[in-house]
Amino acid sequence: MSVLLLEAFNGGSHKQLLDLLKESVEDCVSFTLPAKKWHWRARTSALYFMQAVPASSLYRVLFTSSVLNLAELVALRPDLGHLKKVLYFHENQLVYPVRKSQERDFQYGYNQILSCLVADVVVFNSSFNMESFLMSISTFMKTMPDHRPKDLERLIRPKCHVLHFPIRFPDVTRFLPAHKRLRHPVRCDDIHAPAAKSHVQTSSPREHDKDPQLFFQTLLKLKDRQLSFEVSVLGETFADVPDIFSEAKEQLVDHIQHWGFMPSKEDYLKVLCQADVVVSTAKHEFFGVAMLEAVHCGCYPLCPKALVYPEIFPATYLYSTPEQLCKKLQEFCKRPQLARQHVVQVSLSSFSWDSLGDHFRSLLKADSGMMFTDKHIS
C-alpha cells in the first residue's frame, strides 16, 4: 500500500476517478468520506483523515482532491508530509460561481491555495481550470484587508500540470438506434427514426450555475414556433429546485420523453443513445464528463463558447449567444438529419482511461516526475 488515496467528497467525478485508480494502480489503499455536505467536508475532513488513516512506513505517495485542506492534514500528520503529495483539482473555488460576490466564502479558496503550497505536484483536469485558478490568486488575495502575501502564483505555477479527467467509455452499441449504428463499426439496416430530440445534461438541477432558465426558455421558443422536438431532462431531484423546472415540465408536457433521475447507469446511457442533440447552458464548467459521455452515445453537442468548452470542442459546436443556440436547435427541429447524419469531430480517445491511464500510474510513482507528451496533457 505505497499509494495513499484520500477523497473527502467521494461522489460524482471524484468517485469515478478514485475507483479507476483503485482498480488500475497497484499497491494502493483508500480512505473516503461520503459525498454529502460539501462545505463541511472542505472545512473538517483533514481532522477526520488524521484519525482515520493508520500510521505506516509503507506509504510513498499521497493523492487527494482539492476538497481536502492538505496543509491542515500534513500539519496534523507530519508523517504524511514526507510523502510525494499530489493534489488533483476537479474544480477551483477561486472562480466557482456564486450569485453575489459577497456570498463567496473566502476560506474555501484560501484552503486550496494553502494546499497547493504544500503539495509537490498540482494537477488540473483542464487548462481552463488551471489558468482560471492561477490567474485569480492575486485578485482573490486582495480581498484580505491588509498584510497580503505576494507572489503566490509564482510559487505555485511550477508545480502545476494538466491531466484531463479520464473516462471509461462503455460499449453502447446495443443501445444505439439504427441511424447511429450507421456511423459506428457495427452496422445494420436503416429504420425510421423518431422525431428530433434535445437532451439537457444537468447533474444537479438545483444549481443556478447550469442556467436551466436559458435552456427551458429556448425550448419554449421552439414550442411557440410549433416545431417538433422531444426533450429528456436527466438529473437527481433535490429539495431546492428552481421554479423553472416545474413550470417547464407543465408547459412542455407534450414534448417530454424522460424527466428526472435514471435508476441506473445503463438506463442513463439508453436515454443518451436515443437523443440526437445534447445541450449545455452552463455558466460554469471545468471539464464536462456528461457532455463527452453524450457525444460517445452519438449526440451532437451544443456548448457555450466559454469556460472549458473551447478546449474540448471544435468551434462548430459552440454558440456565443442565446439566439445562436435557439437558431441551431430550430434548424435541427426542421431538418433532424443534420444532427443524425453528422459525425462529431471530437477525439474521445484523448479523454479515455486507455489513453490517460499510464499518465496517472506515472503520477503515482514515488520517484517519477510529470513526463507528459500528449497534446491534451501538459
Structure overview:
- With 378 residues, the chain is α/β, with parallel strands linked by helices.
- It has two domains: 3-167 and 352-363, Rossmann fold (3-Layer(aba) Sandwich); 173-348, Glycogen Phosphorylase B (Rossmann fold, 3-Layer(aba) Sandwich), CATH 3.40.50.2000.
- The protein is 39% helix and 15% strand.
- Strands 2-1-3-4-5-6 form a six-stranded parallel β-sheet, sandwiched between helices. Strands 9-8-7-10-11-12 form a six-stranded parallel β-sheet.
- α5 links the parallel β4 and β5.
- α10 packs parallel to α11 (243-251) and α10 (212-224) packs across α15.
- The longest helix has 15 residues, at 38-52.
- Mean pLDDT is 89; it is low at 185-196, 200-206 and 371-376.
CATH structural fold name of the largest domain: Rossmann fold
Within CATH, the superfamily of the largest domain carries the name Glycogen Phosphorylase B
- Indicate the CATH architecture of the largest domain: 3-Layer(aba) Sandwich
Major β-sheet annotation: 6 strands, parallel
How far is the first residue's CA from the last residue's CA? Answer: 28 Å
- N-to-C order of helices and strands: EHEHEHHEHEHHHEHEHEHEHEHEHEHHH
Number of strands: 12
**DSSP strand (E) fraction?**
15-25%
